[in-house]
Structures are given as C-alpha cells and as structure tokens.
Amino acid sequence: MKAWIGAAFAVAMALPAWADVAPMGDDGLYKEPWMRDTFKDLREDLAEANAEGRRLVLFVEQRGCIYCHKMHEEVFSLPDVAEYIEENFFVVQINLHGDTEITDFDGESLSEKAATRKWRVLFTPNIIFLPEEVPEGAAAIDAAVAVMPGAFSKGTTLDMFTWVEEKRYELDNGEDFQRYHARRIQERDDGNFD
Questions:
Q1: Does the keyword Transport apply (predicted)?
Q2: Domain range holding 94?
Q3: Distance between CA atoms of residues 29 and 11, nearest Å
C-alpha cells in the first residue's frame, strides 16, 4: 500500500504545474475565463470588442477534440498566454457541431455547424482573427485577417496573437507571419522551433 501511495505521489509531482485545464461546459468544450458568452451576433460582438479596445477572435472547437485539449492544457493555461489573450482579445467560442444560432457579418443567421461549414472549417481547433472593421456583406472567414488552424505550442500561438494584435498583416515590410515567427524564435534564442 505504501509503495502505491509513493508511486502516485511521484506521478503527481512529475505533472507540470500548468496541467490544470479550464472547466468543461455542458457542450463538452473547455471554458476559459477570458471567453465571452454572447448572443453570437458577430456584428454585435465586433462592436463590443472595438468598444473595449480588443480584437474579435473566434475559437472553433469540438467535443472530444484531443488537440483542443492540448491547447487548453499546454498553452491557454499558461499565465502569460492567458493574460495576453484576455487583455487584447474578445474571444467567442464556436462549437463545430453546435446548434446555437449565429448571425454572421453578412447578416445570415444559421447554426454553429452550418456556419463552420460555410467558413470551410474542417478540423479543430481553428482560430479565426477578425479585423476591426468588416466590409458589408462579408462572411467571417472572408473578412479574417488570419486563421490559425490546428494546435500549436506556446511560442507559435503567442507569436500569432501578437502578430495580429500589432496589425503586422497590414505592414508592407515583407515580414509575413512566417518571417515574423522565425525572427521571434531567433530573438527568444530558446533553440525550440515552436
């Protein structure tokens, strides 16, 4: 019995401190404290984000997604990442297979699952970054300034959020996200290509 307790303690001590994952909602999706519960009228969400001086971002996730779990466990739970997102972004979570009604920027009202099909989202997580102004009649995916499809490590994730927040997609300096990210890796000089 003592050996079992000792082994359990050793395993618990080996887990990283950031292994805490946000609570899960009734829909089976992780609910970070910085996610917004809205009526999912994207025009209203954009107006509210702008009023707060934040950027609107859509997190498309699904129940049972191991890559979503990985992002919530290993990236979004890190204090510096969570703080950066909370301070700079207005996050609306979208369920890939959900039935909650969304009103897209073009005025079309449809279920989450129909909207994600319209936006050509095939897998999760998929993070869609929106500009501060969306052209009239544009759908969310057509207005997006960047899309982050898939699970990435802390460095890549934070670099993408920073690149969008700093509006580097507008700069005519020849530094697209890949060049920006490569430069940030060198500046961090951590030897990891994350």
A1: no
A2: 19-153
A3: 27
* Residue with the two structure tokens 């890549």: 156
Strand-strand pairing, 89-95 and 35-36: parallel
Specify if 51 maps to a domain.
Answer: yes
pLDDT single digits (tens) 70-100 = 999 999 999 999 999 999 999 999 999 999 9
- Give the global pTM: 0.86
Is residue 5 included in any domain, yes or no? no
The burial of 164, by beta-carbon neighbours within 10 Å (0-12 exposed, 13-18 middle, 19 or more buried), is given as buried
Instruction: Pick 11 or 51 by higher pLDDT.
Output: 51
pLDDT band of 3, cuts 50, 70, 90: low
User: Where residue 21 falls among pLDDT bands split at 50, 70, 90?
Assistant: confident
Tokens (6 digits) for 15? 């887990």
Phi then psi dihedrals of residue 61, to 5 deg = -135, 175
CATH classification of the domain holding 71: 3.40.30.10
11 occurs within a structural domain: no
Q: What pairs with residue 57 in β-bridges?
A: 91, 129
Give the pLDDT confidence of 41-53 residue by residue, as tens digits: 999 999 999 999 9
Residue 57 lies in a domain: yes
Residues paired with residue 30 on neighbouring β-strands, in sequence order = 24
User: Considering its fold, how many domains does the chain have in total?
Assistant: 1
User: Which contacts qualify for 179-186: CB closer than 8 Å, 24 or more apart?
Assistant: 181/155, 181/156, 184/155, 184/159, 185/155
